[in-house]
Amino acid sequence: MAEKEPIGVIGVGWVGLVTAACFADLGHEVYARDVIQEKVDSLTRGEVPIHEPGLAELVRKNAARLHFTTDMDEVLENAHLLFCCVDTPPTYSGDADLSRVEKVVEEIGDSTDHAIVMKSTVPVGTGRAIARKRVDVGYVSCPEFLKEGSAVTDFMHPDRVVVGADEGSEEFGKRVAALYEPLEAPIVMTDVASAEMVKLASNAFLATKISFINEIANVSEELGADVQEVAKGMGLDERIGSQFLRAGIGYGGSCFPKDVSALKQLAGNTGYHFQLLTAVIEVNELQKRRTIGKLQKHLGSLVGKEIALLGVAFKPDTDDVREATALVLAARLQGEGAHVRVYDPVAIENARDMLGGASIAGSALEAIDGADAAVLVTEWSEFAELDWNEVRGRMRQAVLIDGRNYLPRETLEAAGFAYEGVGR
Ligand code: UDX
After folding, report:
1. Quick one: 235-420 is in which CATH superfamily?
2. N or C: the chain end with fewer CB closer than 10 Å?
3. CATH topology of domain 7-190
């Protein structure tokens, strides 16, 4: 069997660690570099600081092929394809902050043997700008489409792999594509700018789908339709597809809010007003706040009311609270004069400093004890298993806002709850 190409990973955050562990599992020697010594030390000991199903097992299983280091030279000596996985957080202007990417490019130095393989989400045009400045180093765009909570499975079973390479880097592009061949997924070979655009456009389209179904939900509430039935009927049309049609209290996370803003901003920088994305963002913001109106409908003024928020993570099976709806809700509810209690089985520590004066509960039952209303924000499976008669007995008033249409409505109504889903 041909020797597998060693690879470098620069930036061992969530994307970098998943990339490193999965390539190691495919049989590659992986040289993964991070600037934080403690992180490198704990990963070398097999300790994984991220809540991602299957990842810790993969890191430990492939420990012999995973070389964590703070030393860039060690990576450059051992690998020629360098996957850049550093953060590109949004700046105040809505543009992406590329300072970490630029630093990595700087550190790689001059070499015709090496190629930067960009996994970090960057604005369209970044690759060409880097390649113009650094003609000696190869450049390949290879955007990631991993979902938190299923990143390892997504890596191993991608819908597609996109590889963008311009003139001069085509050979590196082919080598990157070869790494993914064992996964037997369609590989789209294209130019760098198009590859960059695939990433932003895909996330913007998915966010659009969610905002669209959320608006259908809001109108359905007024017109007496049930959005879940509507989504089922729509989703069977193959042109539409059934995924990402779950109405709820808005999307969050580290990607959708950031990437939708980045694409809108990028268009704006060229003088183009991307009207659709402006609406997608606004619908999402309003969707989070609609919960306040639903609570007021049942409780009147929220001053002095005890409100339980179930779930803080932006979605289940992750401890990520970036752009999480619960943070906005906790702040808005406190602004309305309510007392807020918050519970999350995994993510609460990451949210502790962002919850203002809200109190933190150690269990769902502790959060709802004596509450006037509960809002299900994140569909953690343990919430579906609650004994609703017991919950009802513990609450001061039985109002339940199901922000994800996740709970058994009939059971709740039978237990005496005033139940409100989204779009039903
Ligand atoms: C997303 C993209 O799916 C992934 O391809 C990209 O690489 C990173 O961004 P992720 O942020 O992990 O992944 O979460 P995802 O599962 O896509 O959910 C994003 C948000 O949308 C969550 O807040 C989720 O609750 C919400 N959502 C999703 C809905 O409200 N309705 C849906 O139907 C689907």
Report:
1. NAD(P)-binding Rossmann-like Domain (3.40.50.720)
2. N
3. Rossmann fold (3.40.50)
The label of the residue with tokens 């309510």 reads 338
Task: Give per-residue pLDDT as tens, 116-142.
Answer: 999 999 999 999 999 888 888 999 999
Q: What ranges do the domains of the chain cover?
A: 7-190, 235-420
Q: How far apart, in Å, are the Cα atoms of 231 and each of 156, 218, 246, 392?
A: 29, 13, 7, 30
pLDDT of residue 1 exceeding 70: no
Q: Which atom of ligand 1 is nearest to the CA of 314?
A: 23
The whole-model pTM stands at: 0.94
Atom of ligand 1 nearest to the CA of 259: 9
CA-CA-CA-CA torsion for 259, 262, 266, 271, nearest 10 degrees?
110
85 as an active site residue: the answer is no
| Burial classification of residue 60, based on how many CB atoms lie within 10 Å of its CB (0-12 exposed, 13-18 middle, 19 or more buried) | middle
**Do the domains at 7-190 and 235-420 have one common CATH topology?**
yes
Distance from the Cα of residue 174 to its chain's centroid: 29
Q: What is the mean pLDDT of the chain?
A: 96
How far apart, in whole angstroms, are the C-alpha atoms of residue 23 and residue 185? 15
Ligand 1 center from residue 214 Cα (angstroms): 14
Ordered strands of the 373-376 beta sheet: 359-360, 339-343, 306-310, 373-376, 399-402, 418-420
To test the ligand 1 pocket, which listed residue (14, 212, 255, 290) has its Cβ within 8 A of the most ligand atoms? 255
